[in-house]
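Propose amino acids for all 741 sites.
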C-alpha cells in the first residue's frame, strides 16, 4: 500500500512537471512578450489554461494526498477551465457565430463552477477554525459593509450629467443671466405640475440641486450620500421589523449585486436623487409607524403620516406603497379590523390626493390638445401590455438581467452593440479586475463566512418577512406598468427610475434567502457555492457598470468637458464680440438643448463664457437660407460665430470661426459644408510632440500644422487655445487633430 502511494505521488508529480514544461514550451513558442496580452492563438491559450489547472491539481494531490472533497473541488476547477478553454477556442476562431456569442453571454457559469471548486478546496477558510478572527470580523461588520458599498459606488463619481440632468445642469445655473430667482422658479414649477394634474411639489427640488451643485463630482457625491442614507434607513427598518440585527446587514451586502447601471434612465447616476429621497421618505414613515405600533406614542404616527404624504406628493409611483403600510400594521396588530383602524389616516390621505389628482387631470385634458399631454401619465389599460411591462420592470432589479437581456443600446444616433457592453472573455475578465474590486470582494466574503457561522434560528424569515420583500419589489413598478409611454420603452433587462425601490426589494429577498438557506444546506458545499456566486456576480457587475459609464461618458461627458474648457479659455471671445450670434454645429448635445419646450441653446455658452451669449434657434437659422438653399453670411450685416466640439477619454477638440458660406441647414439645425475664416481651435488632453492640426481650404488644398508650431493664444489647466493663422477660407468640418478621431 505504501509503495502504491509513493508511486502514485511520483506519477502525479511527473504529471505536474510535464504540464509545467508544456506551459513553458507554449510561452516560448508564442514568443510571449507581454503576459497580459499574449501574442498566441486561441487554441494555445485554451490549452495553456487546461495545463495550468492540471499542473496545480497534480501538484496538490502529490503534496497533500487524496480525499473525496478534494476530488470534487478539483473536478469543478477542471470543468470550469475546460469550458473557458473551449470558449476561447470557439470565440477566437468564429467570433460572430451564435455559439460564440452564447458562450460569451453565459461564461459566468464557468467562473461560478471554477470558483466553487476553488473555495471548496480552501479547507482552512470553509471550516471556520479560527473563531476569534471571525468574531472580530462580525464585530466590525458595519465598517466592512460600508467599505464594500463605497467601493461599489465610487465609479459614479467619474460619470457626467446624463439625460435630463444634462439639460438641467446648464439651464438652471444659467438663470442668473436672466435675474430669475431659483426659489420663484421652483414655486412656478410646483404650480405648473399641479395645473397638469400632478400634485408633485416635492419633486421639484432639482432646481435647488443643480443651482447649488454645478460640478459633476459635487452632484454625484450628493447622489452617493443620498444612496448611503437610504442604506442606513433600510438597515434600521429591518432591525426593527425583524427584531434582529444580522438580516439587515446581509440584505445590504446583496445590494451591489442588484444595482446595474444601464444606458437608460438610471436612479443611481442621475435624476437629482428623486428616487433616493422618496425611498428615504418611505423608510422613515415605516420606521416611525413601527415605533407607534410598538409604543403607542401618537407623535410617531403623526411623523410617519407626514413623510408618507411627502412621498405621495413626490411621484405617482408612491401610491402602491400603501400595501407596505397595511402589511406592517397587520404584522403587528394581527387583526384585519385593527389594521384598518390604524391605517385609516394613510388610506384617507391617499384617497383624497388620488381623487384630486384625477379631477385636475380631467380638467387639464379638456383644455389642451391631446398631443400636449405628457404620455408618461396617460394610462393604457391593455392587460397584456401591463403585465409584460410590470414583469420587465420587476425582473430588471434581479442580478444579471441587463447582461442576460443582451440588448443593443443607443445614445443619440449612436448604436452600441450588446457585445461592446457585456462581452467579457476569460482573459479580458481577469484583466478588468481592479485592486479595489479585490479588496471589496474580500471584505464581502469575510462577512458572508462569518455570518454563515453565526446565523441562528431566530434569524430565519417568517411569512410576513417574505411578503414584505415581494411587495417592496413589485409595488413600485405597478404605476409604471400602467403608463402608455413605458409600455413601449420598458423591455426585458430595462427598468425605469422606480427600479431603485425594486433593488432593495430584491436585495431583501436575497438576504432573506441567505438566512433561510444557512439552516437548510450542507455548510461546506453550500458556503463554497454561495461565495462563488457572490464573487462572480460582484466582479462581473463592477466591470459592466464601469463599461456602461464609460460608453455614456463618450457621448455625454467628454465632449461637454471639452466645450466647457474651450469656452472658459475664451474661444468665443476670440472669434467674435458680444453682439455676435453663435451657431452651434453640434448635433443632439443635451446640455445645449432648451428646457420645458424652450429652444434656447445660449445658456450653455453663457454659463461657461461668463457672459450673456445669444444664439440662433433652428427656426431662425433656417430663415437665413436663400432661394437656392444656401446661406451667404458675408451678405448679412450681422456677425456670426460657428462653434463645434467633440472629445474622447484622451483628447478633445473645439473649433470656432466666422462663417462665410453654407450649402444649407440640416434637419438637426447644423450648417452643411460650412466655409469659414478666422479659425480658432482648443485642444484638450495630452498630445504627442508629433500631433498636428489639419484643415482643407475652400480651394480644396489640404493643410497641416504641427501643434507645437501653432499660434498659441491661451494655455489653461484643461488645454490650449490656438489660432489658425491662415488667411484663406476653410471648410469648417475639415478642421481636425491627427490624434483625434
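Proposal:
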Amino acid at each position: 500500500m505504501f509503495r502504491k502511494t509513493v508511486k502514485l505521488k511520483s506519477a502525479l508529480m511527473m504529471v505536474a512537471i510535464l504540464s509545467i514544461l508544456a506551459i513553458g514550451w507554449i510561452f516560448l513558442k508564442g514568443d510571449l512578450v507581454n503576459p497580459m496580452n499574449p501574442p498566441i492563438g486561441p487554441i494555445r491559450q485554451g490549452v495553456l489554461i487546461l495545463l495550468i489547472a492540471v499542473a496545480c491539481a497534480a501538484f496538490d494531490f502529490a503534496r497533500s494526498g487524496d480525499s473525496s472533497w478534494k476530488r470534487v473541488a478539483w473536478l469543478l476547477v477542471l470543468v470550469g477551465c475546460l469550458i473557458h478553454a473551449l470558449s476561447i477556442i470557439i470565440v477566437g476562431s468564429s467570433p460572430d457565430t451564435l455559439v460564440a456569442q452564447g458562450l460569451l453571454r453565459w461564461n459566468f457559469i464557468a467562473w461560478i463552477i471554477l470558483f466553487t471548486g476553488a473555495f471548496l478546496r480552501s479547507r482552512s477558510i470553509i471550516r471556520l477554525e479560527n473563531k476569534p478572527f471571525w468574531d472580530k470580523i462580525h464585530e466590525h461588520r458595519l465598517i466592512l459593509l460600508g467599505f464594500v458599498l463605497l467601493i461599489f459606488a465610487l465609479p459614479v463619481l467619474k460619470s457626467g450629467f446624463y439625460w435630463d440632468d444634462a439639460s438641467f445642469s446648464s439651464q438652471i445655473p444659467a438663470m442668473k443671466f436672466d435675474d430669475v430667482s431659483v426659489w420663484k422658479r421652483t414655486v412656478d414649477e410646483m404650480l405648473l405640475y399641479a395645473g397638469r394634474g400632478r400634485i408633485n411639489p416635492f419633486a421639484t427640488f432639482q432646481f435647488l440641486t443643480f443651482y447649488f451643485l454645478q460640478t459633476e463630482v459635487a452632484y454625484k457625491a450628493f447622489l452617493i450620500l443620498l444612496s448611503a442614507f437610504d442604506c442606513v434607513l433600510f438597515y434600521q427598518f429591518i432591525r426593527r421589523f425583524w427584531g434582529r440585527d444580522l438580516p439587515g446587514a446581509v440584505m445590504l451586502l446583496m445590494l451591489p449585486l442588484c444595482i446595474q447601471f444601464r444606458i437608460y434612465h438610471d436612479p443611481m447616476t442621475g435624476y437629482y436623487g428623486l428616487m433616493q429621497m422618496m425611498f428615504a421618505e418611505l423608510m422613515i414613515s415605516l420606521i416611525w409607524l413601527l415605533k407607534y405600533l410598538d409604543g403607542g406614542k401618537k407623535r410617531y404616527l403623526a411623523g410617519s403620516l407626514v413623510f408618507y404624504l411627502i412621498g405621495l406628493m413626490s411621484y405617482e409611483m408612491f401610491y402602491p406603497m400603501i400595501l407596505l403600510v397595511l402589511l406592517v400594521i397587520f404584522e403587528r396588530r394581527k387583526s384585519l379590523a385593527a389594521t384598518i383602524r390604524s391605517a385609516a389616516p394613510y388610506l384617507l390621505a391617499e384617497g383624497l390626493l388620488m381623487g384630486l389628482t384625477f379631477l385636475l387631470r380631467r380638467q387639464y385634458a379638456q383644455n389642451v390638445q391631446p398631443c400636449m399631454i405628457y404620455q408618461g401619465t396617460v394610462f393604457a389599460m391593455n392587460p397584456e401590455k401591463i403585465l409584460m411591462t410590470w414583469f420587465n420592470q420587476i425582473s430588471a432589479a434581479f442580478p444579471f438581467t441587463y447582461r442576460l437581456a443582451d440588448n443593443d443600446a443607443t445614445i443619440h444616433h449612436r448604436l452600441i452593440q450588446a457585445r461592446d457592453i457585456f462581452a467579457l472573455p476569460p482573459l479580458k475578465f481577469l484583466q478588468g479586475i481592479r485592486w479595489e474590486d479585490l479588496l471589496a470582494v474580500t471584505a464581502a466574503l469575510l462577512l458572508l463566512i462569518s455570518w454563515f457561522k453565526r446565523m441562528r434560528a431566530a434569524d430565519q424569515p417568517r411569512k410576513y418577512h417574505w411578503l414584505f420583500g415581494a411587495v417592496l419589489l413589485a409595488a413600485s413598478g405597478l404605476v409604471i406598468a400602467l403608463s402608455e409611454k413605458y409600455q413601449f420603452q420598458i423591455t426585458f433587462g430595462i427598468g425605469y427610475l422606480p427600479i431603485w425601490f425594486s433593488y432593495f426589494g430584491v436585495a431583501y429577498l436575497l438576504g432573506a434567502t441567505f438566512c433561510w438557506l444557512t439552516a437548510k444546506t450542507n455548510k461546506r458545499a453550500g458556503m463554497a457555492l454561495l461565495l462563488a456566486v457572490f464573487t462572480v456576480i460582484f466582479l462581473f457587475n463592477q466591470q459592466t457598470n464601469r463599461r456602461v459609464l464609460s460608453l455614456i461618458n463618450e457621448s455625454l461627458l467628454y465632449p461637454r468637458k471639452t466645450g466647457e474648457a474651450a469656452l472658459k479659455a475664451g474661444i468665443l471671445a476670440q472669434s467674435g464680440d458680444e453682439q455676435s450670434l453663435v451657431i452651434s454645429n453640434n448635433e443632439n448635445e443635451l446640455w445645449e438643448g432648451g428646457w420645458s419646450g424652450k429652444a434656447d441653446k445660449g445658456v450653455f455658452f453663457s454659463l461657461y463664457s461668463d457672459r450673456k451669449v445669444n444664439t440662433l434657434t433652428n427656426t431662425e437659422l433656417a430663415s437665413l437660407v436663400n432661394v437656392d438653399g444656401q446661406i451667404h453670411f458675408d451678405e448679412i450685416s450681422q456677425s456670426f460665430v460657428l462653434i463645434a466640439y467633440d472629445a474622447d477619454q484622451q483628447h478633445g477638440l473645439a473649433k470656432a470661426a466666422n462663417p462665410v458660406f453654407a450649402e444649407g441647414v440640416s434637419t438637426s439645425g447644423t450648417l452643411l459644408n460650412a466655409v469659414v475664416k478666422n479659425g480658432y481651435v482648443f485642444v484638450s488632453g495630452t498630445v504627442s510632440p508629433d500631433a498636428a492640426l489639419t484643415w482643407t481650404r475652400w480651394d480644396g488644398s489640404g493643410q497641416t500644422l504641427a501643434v507645437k508650431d501653432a499660434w498659441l493664444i491661451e494655455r489653461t489647466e484643461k488645454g490650449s487655445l490656438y489660432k489658425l493663422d491662415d488667411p484663406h477660407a476653410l471648410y469648417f468640418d475639415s478642421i481636425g487633430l491627427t490624434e483625434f478621431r
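The two ends are 71 Å apart (CA to CA). The chain has 31 helices and 16 strands.
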